[in-house]
Amino acid sequence: MTPRLRRGVIAGLVVAAVAAAPVAAGAAEREDFITGITRACRGCDLSGVSFKRRDLAGVDLAGARLKDANFHDARLAGANLAGADLDGANLNKAGLSRADLSGATLRGAMLYGAVLDGGKLNGADLTGALMGTARCLRCDLAGARLIDADMRKSRLDAAVLTAADLTGAALDQALLRDAVLERARLAGTRLMGADLSGARLRSADLSGADALAANLRGADLTGADLGAADLRKANLYEATTAGAIWRDTVMPDGTRGP
Predict the structure, then answer these.
(1) For the stretch 199-229, what's the b/e string if a residue is b when 16 or more beta carbons lie within 10 angstroms of its beta carbon?
(2) Region 12-36: what's the mean pLDDT?
(3) How far apart are CA 158 and CA 147, in angstroms?
(4) Per-residue confidence at 5, pLDDT binned at 50, 70, 90?
(5) What is the percent of the chain where pLDDT is above 70?
(6) pTM (2 decimals)?
(7) CA gap 150, 168 in Å, rounded
(8) Who's near 118: CB < 8 A, 6+ residues apart?
């Protein structure tokens, strides 16, 4: 091999090594996080990885790909999961108190019995999420998408759901006391036996909602659309209903509104 050819080969190897370095570093960062050496892996692809019962409190996984990952019964208190892809992830019984999930996608994710108290989920996409018995006290769910989500017996007391989309969601026997649901979409939502006492539902869309035996005592329904809603046996004592729409509404006594 001539000196000139040798120099060309060496230069080519150097270029190749430099080009491969970012990939190797990313792989190393991912492996270090999985093994617990590090506590941050922003933007990493951890799809399908199992973190079952792991202590991940305070980890930084902002923008990470966590599709179908398993976080069953894991500790994620204060974790940064903003903008993360958690579609189909298993978060059943996970501890997510004060976690940041703003802008995250959790379509079809499992959150049965999860604890999200004080969590940030504003703008998150929870379409079709399974959240039965989940606890989300004082959560920020402003602008979140909860279309067709299963939230039966969930606890959302004092949660902020301003302009959230809960179309077709199941909130049977859910607790939403003092929750903020102003301008929220609850069209066709199931609210059977739900406790919405003191809830703020100003200008909310409750058209076609099934609120059989729901507790709306002291709720603010100013300007809310209750067209075709089922309010049989619902408690509307001390509720504010100025400007509400009652078109073909089934009233608490079983009669239909105008």
Answers:
(1) bbbbbbbbbbbbbbbbbbbbbbbbbbbbbbb
(2) 62
(3) 20
(4) very low
(5) 90
(6) 0.88
(7) 9
(8) 97, 98, 137, 138, 139
Tokens of 56: 């991940």
156, 136 in Cβ contact below 8 A?
Answer: yes
53: amino acid identity, one letter:
R
- Taking the C-alpha atoms of residue 204 and residue 163, their distance in angstroms, rounded to an integer, is 8
CB 226 within 8 A of CB 244: yes
- The DSSP symbol for 206 reads -
Amino acid in position 28: A
Taking a C-beta distance cutoff of 8 angstroms, is the pair 93, 113 a contact? yes
Give the burial class of 192: count Cβ atoms within 10 A of its Cβ; 0-12 exposed, 13-18 middle, 19 or more buried: buried
Report domain extents, the chain. Answer: 1-38
